Amino acid sequence: MAQILLLYDSRGGLTEQLADAIAEGVESPGVECVRRRVDDATIPDVLRADGIILGSPNWSGMTGKLKDWFDYSGDLWEKGDLAGKVGGVFTAGYSRSGGNEATLLQLMHLVLGHGMVLVGLPWSETMRRSGSYYGVTAHGTVTDEDREQGRALGARVAAFAQRLAD
Fold first, then answer.
1. Which of 42, 66, 102, 124 makes a 20 to 30 Å CA pair with 9?
2. What's the pLDDT score for residue 131?
3. Other CB atoms closer than 10 Å to residue 13's CB: what's the count?
4. Domain annotation for the chain: domains and CATH numbers
């Protein structure tokens, strides 16, 4: 069974709402979703996962707490423990122009820096209208379209992780 770790920080609840939708997309036959807030995540959680979806509120970049967690898990990078795993990213904030893309790029940097295989949103009209193809975003509130994209990203990461695990 493939396992996807949904690892995120959430402060105001928007990121958590996106995580709910992403988890729905991940859950499928042969795939388990393990959710962890950054405060509760452990190195064994990361090592067991076949895929990792990272999320952070948009504070014109990822939160310091999430960055700090990865800074102090440097052995994962040093040993290449995450290389070849599937990764995806998401963010939420209160302003459409407040740095969501910067936050996604920082999260993507973590994924790529660890040698993971980055999976973005599948092409769709919803993705085209949202302006985000790197990962899932929400602005101000989490809409039904945001949730739809969350489920799509979760399902896509799960499918790729299953293929690589096989």
1. 124
2. 64
3. 11
4. 2-165 (3.40.50.360)
